[in-house]
Amino acid sequence: MAIVAETTKFSKFAWPILAWGVALIFFFPIFWMVLTSFKTDADAVKPEFLLWFTPTLENYANMTDNYDYWRFATNSIITSVSATLLTLIVGVPCAYAMAFDPSRGTKDILMWMLSTKMLPAAAVLYPMIFLAKGLGIYDTHFLVIMVLCLINLPIVIWMLFTYFKDIPKDIIEAGKMDGLNTWGEVREILIPLAWGGIASTALLAFIFCWNEAYWTVRLTTIDAATLSKLIEGNRAPEGLFFGRLSAVSTAAVGPIVILGWFCQKQLVQGLTFGAVK
Amino acid sequence: MANRTIPRLLQTPAVLLLLVWMLVPLGMTLFFSFIRYVLNNLRRPEWTSPSIENWRGFGNYKFVWNQDGFWLAIQNSLLIVCSILFLTVILGVLIAVLVNRSFPGRGIVRVLLISPFFVMPAVNAVLWINMILDPVLGLQGIAVGGINEVIAGLRNAPLIGGFFSLWPELNPISFRATQTSAYAVIMMVTWQWTPFAVLIFMTSLQSEDQQQKEAAILDGAGRWSQFRFLTLPHLGRPIAIVVMIQAIFHLSLYAEIEIVSRGNGNKNLPYFIGELANNNIGAASATGIFAVILANIVAIFLLRMVGKTLME
Fold it and tell me: What residues does each domain of chain A span?
């Protein structure tokens, strides 16, 4: 018994310290970015101001002058919000039909949808540019919204499907007995019951849209360029602008990281397609 | 039969959209991969528009196959993907076991741990390559400079000075160089995706059979054998899923490669395609088809695995 007691004592102190240490190491780069964003560009590269410095908000105040931040941020907001809504409008009915009226083909359709997600984007890069330019929609919000919708649609349908599957079918049947039509079922039964699931799916889809960095960079130049493009365009400041670059980076990822904290659990379901519970 | 109409109708928009998304661009890539198609060619202007008359058969495929750059890109893709997988799975399991206990502040620890996953890839790369890894102005440069200064100070100290004068001056590593840029990418992506692995393993650990574990403890199983014979087998499936999902994501890494060194030393397949697509569309498309084949090899395994649990 002595050994057991010793291990408990050890784990009582060492375990939390170790866990906290690891968590702080992983969080450190983000902390460092936020900290640097409050330094002037000159202070940011001086070792003597590593931790003790006079904090300044000038990097945030000058974000619009330095980087035209709000134009890119507005584009990010417009495209991510619209794409999320569009994905839900297309995805909810589809997942609803699959969960409550599955046919023999449903499983295959779901698998096939997932497989579209595995198509390497680079393989269809040029055709997309070719089509977009041919149709005159290159560098427009419409194009970015469509592409974001398409790349997230499989994940959204999968997530919604795993949520809807857990709703007892009897409730829908009862609704049918009461004379509800399909739209009535969705509005009166499905949405109230699966509200949480739909909301977290939307949140996750929004985060993926916001962080998307391949298509949004490759299919835009100026008019529809998002924050990913802004950051990538300023990739090599050669150490001169660490302060202002940190500020604009913090502004670009801060809201999303905080939103992400609220949908950790859904992330697991969404990204493993319900295979890990 | 009539009651099947509505469900079909509800699925139609999603299916149609994805069908078009999958077939049209991929069909075009397939077509372009069999023709001579370049964006600029003064000598042969007829090659600058896609036409069936410029049929080249498997010529583009042969051209790409014989390029050193193509094999280097595959090699880099595999090096980057495999290293990230190896690191994230090991770190992920260790950290998941570490945080799976109850201790003060566990909620905050979880929040801190998951945060890197939500950072946008472009910011991740800019942050790491500049603020952290820069050999002069980043934390790496500052740390190396600091250590050198301390050692220089110790050299003048009595008694131990002789020992420290044998120490060489440390040189910071430039992570934009050809030899090291792949490691910079591996480092930053591992930082971003380890939280994902942790999250999934943690979720899975919570469904671990506690009674079985208690029985094992009563039988005198130590901590290591509990981990080895109960926890690890339980994590087998999640590990497989984490490996495959990450493989699919990381085979198409792009922003990090671009930001770290513009493909110098870490050029992977998507980056190679992107470069070819600046002019030689035929070759870019053929490479794209190779990338599709590579991704499919991974995808088949994932789909099998996910498919099993689908209708449970």
Answer: 2-59, 68-233
